[in-house]
Write a structure and sequence with these properties.
Order of helices and strands: HHHEEHEEHEHEHEHHEEHEE
Radius of gyration: 20 Å
Number of helices: 10
Length: 252
């Protein structure tokens, strides 16, 4: 937990719950001279002085070592529904995100963007990995809706229907059971290790404004191909918060 706070970690749930900075209400920190800063406040609104907490979150231990924390907790959802979606472009994925946020509001908990090459590498090198969709697509979205009521399925179906009506979604499948849901997420989780058998790779974790993600990927891909002919961009990540794992694998 201290490491997550020190790096202001995000993740697949940051879209709904925020990054580590938004999880922390208070901290205890050991300073460089050994003094202990006790800021373990449980107050949601604290007007008692400077907000020193945020100096240490994301500082990666350079200002002090986080030794305790007061964190926000969220209730476990009653219903969780997961879908794997095929589309043509990151711009279409961004449009689908807008539809999802309108229809699901705060119950949209994950929205992951994956390039086709990610699926290729995972199916080739992963264990018990397969493409959830019958036909190949240039881009994919792994999305999840969670709800405190039993309405997650209906919400997700409405999102996908609107996406298809608007020509955004080419194909989609909703996990029929827990086993399929785990299989969807396993595909997302093995992207990085699946790159290793392909040779050397350069990995980046880049945050851009959500609306700028499609343009960033297009420009970065063009620059990579121009500078390093044969190199293979492998972009994927959390479209909902603009955090893209922009990796580059060596030529075949």
């Amino acid at each position: 937990i201290g490491g997550n706070l020190s790096t202001n970690a995000g993740g697949t749930g940051a879209l709904a719950f925020g990054v580590a900075r938004e999880m922390a209400l208070g901290l205890e920190v050991v300073l460089a001279d050994g003094r202990v800063l006790n800021g373990l406040s449980k107050l949601k609104k604290d007007n008692t002085g400077y907000d020193l907490r945020n100096l240490f979150i994301g500082a990666e231990g350079t200002l002090g070592i986080i030794t305790a924390a007061v964190l926000k907790l969220f209730p476990k959802p009653r219903s969780v529904e997961t879908a794997f979606v095929g589309l043509k472009t990151p711009a279409d994925a961004l449009k689908l995100l807008a539809i999802s946020q309108t229809e699901a509001a705060g119950s949209l908990t994950s929205f992951e963007l994956l390039a086709e090459i990610c699926i290729d590498m995972c199916v080739k090198h992963g264990t018990d990995i397969r493409d959830p969709l019958q036909n190949r697509h240039p881009w994919y979205v792994l999305m999840e809706v969670s709800s405190s009521r039993d309405d997650a399925r209906a919400t997700l179906e409405t999102i996908l229907e609107r996406g298809m009506e608007n020509g955004i979604v080419d194909d989609a499948v909703i996990a029929a059971n827990l086993q399929q849901r785990v299989a969807f997420w396993k595909l997302r989780e093995v992207i990085s290790p699946a790159q290793k058998p392909e040779g050397g790779s350069i990995k980046h974790d880049i945050s851009v404004p959500v609306a700028a993600v499609p343009a960033f990927i297009e420009e970065a891909n063009a620059a990579i191909v121009k500078l390093m002919p044969g190199a293979r961009p492998v972009p994927f990540g959390h479209l909902g918060d603009g955090n893209i794992h922009y990796n580059v694998s060596q030529p075949v």
